[in-house]
# Entry
Amino acid sequence: AGTAENRTKLVAAGAVKQLTAIASAADSEKALADQGVNKLIPYRAGQRQEEAASALYTVTVDDQAKQSAMEVGTLKTLISMIANQEIIKIVTKKETTELPAVSVRAKVEAAGALLRCVTEPANRAHVCELGGVAPVIKLLSHEDIQARERAAGVLHQMSMEQALRVPIVEAGGVGALLALCDMKDCSTLAHEEAAGALLYLA
# Structure
């Protein structure tokens, strides 16, 4: 996108809906075989999702993109990506390789896009209604530092809504946030976001 003007044009042209459709189409064993991942086509498993989620992260800076996120299915797709624990197999003559259906980078980008979406207050309750609280809490313990930062940021934003504090607490949010605060291999930003969420949940 590059500039605010370009992002606005992309959103007006329906980019959020199209990018959401790409992000929601996870690679399957058959799809990978058909695309020749192990042949000459330079395609890496999960690449489509990663790029689509990254683009969604970029365009959701735009207020209109945030506002359309619920109606075009973006919130549901982002939550599904974060929650996905499936493993797919790539079988060749030489070996069988197991890979996550949604890569670490895709999850990180999805969490970033979700964080930007929940800066729009109307989206916070939607995320809760779509079952997004538990997957985000689980992401707090992810091996990737940026994933933890963004998950904590999502909970920080959502905890600003009084009606969402009980669901977060009941899903184990307080314990997970405290555990994040106790992590040594964690960023200052993650600790700040976790502390901010705990402030509202206290």
